[in-house]
Design goal:
Strand content: 15-25%
CATH superfamily of the largest domain: Enterococcus faecalis V583 domain
Helix content: 40-55%
Strand order of the largest sheet: 6-8-7-3-9
Largest sheet: 5 strands, mixed
Structural class: alpha+beta
Number of strands: 18
CATH topology of the largest domain: Enterococcus faecalis V583 fold
Distance between the termini: 44 Å
CATH architecture of the largest domain: Alpha-Beta Complex
Shape: globular
Number of domains: 3
Length: about 475
């Protein structure tokens, strides 16, 4: 452009900062263009080079093809709740003195307070020790074997305890033939998933084993299972996001199970079980989790794919798995949740985040579907309904597609963001938003609040480098 042209026509302004600056110029008639640019989220040259090669360089084509296959597998899934069985019958290697836990691998000395409290309770529940003190000594002795749920096609909320006697729900992905497992939600109050371990906690778990679990199994057999994709679709339209708010989906699955429960047992037992489910708004959370695991396992081991297949935390570390890297964990320190606390508690009481429930975010629910559940926005400290929509919009930037079957009315029925892409997390610096409960940092106390937390960027940086090196 010549000086004469510049004087006659004026400049065109290109803005790489806040969009509001460009909007102001446009409102005054100026020729202005906003460019969506952000500085790199990291200064590590190896991470930057790996992300560039995977996104726009020599490896990008193979990654895109892998991601398309991953998305196809996710959308093709057909998860059906088919059974409830003791964990020892479902997981072959789960026997005496073996406990599965939430998150990536962790050993007793490195476990947080609520995880250790839950383990002591689980040991007493199984009869391996007579009381909590003896259980603690046994756990510290090295005679208990600890492994992540994810290593056994299972997931568990918060502490994620899975031992041989616990009844596990079974979801089969009919499209691929794989199965996944998760414990039944214990209900509200003091519970093992938040580190509770007193007699009331253990008695409730024994009731799940003796009464609710077998009755659910009989009801599911009588009804030939419960398809879950349509329940999720309806729940989204009714204000659930499937991590903090499950009121609608709990009601919907209760409608599916109630007639069969009434047919297969006597009136008093049916009443007891139905009352328990109806009084537990979070009953469906565990169903959503095991559904998520069943959907994501067929996405593992897709060559070159940068899609996250699992996110999990054990109260000290946050770990992710990525499709193209198989079962390798990428781990970083877990973050503290931000949110609202129950009366009498504050952030000084909180434990860092934990649980396998982040599997629901990997399938586009929870924090990724916040816009569907404005009621959650205030409860988890996210602010207004507009803030909830903003959370979902940010998650769109780090996913490979949307799920056309799971739509959000508040976003003109757009599908939920689906398939977390480690490349885009690194490129944008936007990490997954997760809706979560907050446990007390000390064992035996339980839940003290609820909020949101973000996955640590370092996990995704590690995964980017590993994926690029694998293809080099």
């Amino acid at each position: 452009m010549s000086a004469t042209d510049l004087l006659n026509n004026g400049p065109t302004v290109i803005g790489v900062g806040l969009k509001g600056f460009i909007d102001d110029l446009k409102s005054q008639g100026a020729d202005a263009i906003a460019v969506d640019w952000r500085p790199p989220a990291t200064s590590d040259p190896q991470v930057l080079d790996s992300a560039d090669r995977l996104t726009s360089g020599d490896l990008s084509g193979s990654v895109e093809r892998g991601n398309q296959k991953a998305l196809e597998n996710m959308l093709a899934a057909d998860p059906v709740l088919i059974d409830v069985r003791p964990a020892g019958e479902l997981i072959e290697s789960l026997g005496d003195h073996k406990i599965l836990h939430a998150g990536p691998p962790v050993e007793w000395p490195d476990m947080c307070g609520p995880m250790q409290g839950a383990i002591c309770g689980a040991i007493v529940l199984e009869g391996w020790a007579k009381d909590l003190q003896a259980a603690e000594r046994l756990a510290a002795s090295g005679k208990i074997e600890f492994e992540p749920n994810h290593h056994h096609a299972a997931v568990g909320p918060m502490t994620g305890m899975t031992t041989q006697s616990m009844p596990l729900m079974v979801v089969e992905n009919k499209a691929f033939g794989n199965r996944a497992y998760c414990a039944i939600n214990e209900g509200l109050g003091k519970v093992m998933r938040f580190g509770g371990n007193d007699d009331s906690v253990l008695d409730r778990l024994r009731w799940l084993e003796s009464t609710l679990g077998p009755l659910m199994a009989d009801a599911l057999l009588a009804s030939e299972g419960v398809g879950l994709k349509n329940i999720i679709a309806r729940g989204l339209s009714m204000g659930d996001e499937m991590h903090q708010r499950n009121v609608a989906c709990t009601s919907l699955i209760l409608r599916e199970l109630a007639p069969a429960i009434a047919r297969v047992t006597d009136g008093d037992t049916a009443s007891e079980v139905l009352t328990f489910i109806a009084g537990n708004d979070q009953f469906f959370l565990n169903v959503a989790m095991v559904m998520g695991k069943a959907i994501m396992d067929p996405v593992r081991d897709i060559k070159n794919s940068s899609v996250v297949t699992a996110m999990a935390r054990n109260g000290t570390k946050f770990g992710i798995r990525v499709s193209g890297c198989g079962d390798q964990w990428f781990v970083a320190d877990v973050e503290m949740p931000r949110g609202l606390y129950f009366p009498g508690f504050s952030e000084k009481d909180a434990n860092p985040d934990m649980g396998d429930s982040t599997i629901v975010e990997t399938i586009g629910l929870g924090g990724f579907a916040m816009a569907a559940s404005p009621a959650v926005a205030g409860f988890v400290g996210a602010g207004s309904a507009a803030d909830a929509v903003a959370y979902t919009n940010r998650m769109i930037e780090i996913t490979v597609g949307r799920n056309p079957e799971w739509t959000i009315p508040a976003m003109d029925f757009a599908g939920v963001p689906t398939g977390i892409d480690v490349r885009q997390v690194v490129n944008t610096g936007i990490t997954p938003t997760i809706n979560t409960g907050i446990a007390h940092r000390e064992p035996g106390i339980g839940q003290v609040g609820a909020g949101v937390v973000n996955a640590p960027l370092a996990c995704f940086e590690q995964a980017c480098v590993a994926l690029a090196e694998q293809q080099s």
